[in-house]
TrEMBL record:
Keyword Transmembrane helix annotated: yes
Segments passing through the bilayer: 14-37
Name of the featured protein: OmpA family protein
NCBIfam families referenced in this protein's UniProt entry, alphabetically: PRK09040.1
Coiled coil: 40-67
SUPFAM superfamilies: OmpA-like
Pfam family name, one: OmpA
């Protein structure tokens, strides 16, 4: 046998090399397929979670509207983007933070449905006070400015809800003064709309972990 024939006999057959190449390509293809399937599954789960969040938000809004159906129909409250608005004229007289009888009755009727809604959805209630842009009249012995007036009105509503049976951990007060009007303050009617109290369901605050003392323990 010639030297060339010996070399050819020692080299692996071409089909074996081709088989190894195809095996490698198949392995790469399988890896890409597994990655693509995993990515598609992750994307599908993410879309499903977002859909569930939207559906839960819509259901919560529908539940809130149902709970407030009577006062909404009577025009005593408004519901905008989940915020419950009550006209300041219903709750308080001008430049006052003392609840009027009509406002007290309204809060008494709202407390039950609100508490049920908050409890069922794991939420708490932020009570926000707002005023118009007119400065507090000089000589007012109770409030120095609109910030103080809005804060006291929010506190008054918060305390009234608690007095009617709302758990204290489910409600808190916030003040905005003349900031964030719903309409421009151009006349008496618009200013009347801006003098309001809003109640907004918000997520419950998570309890903080106890802080361990840095002092050494007693022996």
């Amino acid at each position: 046998m010639s030297e060339l024939e010996n070399e050819l006999a020692q080299e692996p057959p071409i089909w074996a090399v081709f088989g190894d190449l195809m095996t490698g390509l198949v392995g790469v293809f399988v890896l890409m397929l597994v990655w693509a399937l995993g990515f598609q599954l992750e994307l599908s789960q993410s879309l499903e979670q977002e859909t569930q969040k939207r559906e839960q938000a819509e259901q919560r809004r529908a539940d809130l509207e149902q709970a407030l159906a009577v006062p909404l129909a009577e025009g005593r409250v408004t519901l905008t983007d989940g915020r419950i608005g009550i006209s300041g004229n219903v709750l308080f007289s001008l430049n006052s933070a003392e609840l009027q009888e009509e406002g007290q009755e309204l809060l008494r009727n709202l407390r039950g449905p609100l508490e049920f809604y908050l409890r069922e959805n794991g939420l708490m209630l932020m009570v926000s006070g707002f005023t118009d842009d007119l400065p507090i009249q000089q000589g007012n012995l109770h409030f120095s400015d609109n910030w103080e007036l809005s804060a006291q009105r929010a506190l008054t509503v918060t305390r009234a809800l608690i007095a009617e049976g709302m758990p204290a951990e489910r409600v808190f007060a916030a003040a905005f003064g003349a900031q964030q009007p719903v309409v421009p303050n151009v006349d008496g009617e618009s200013r009347s709309r801006n003098r309001r109290v809003e109640m907004s369901p918000v997520p419950m605050l998570e309890a903080s972990a106890p802080v361990e003392s840095a002092l050494p323990a007693d022996d």
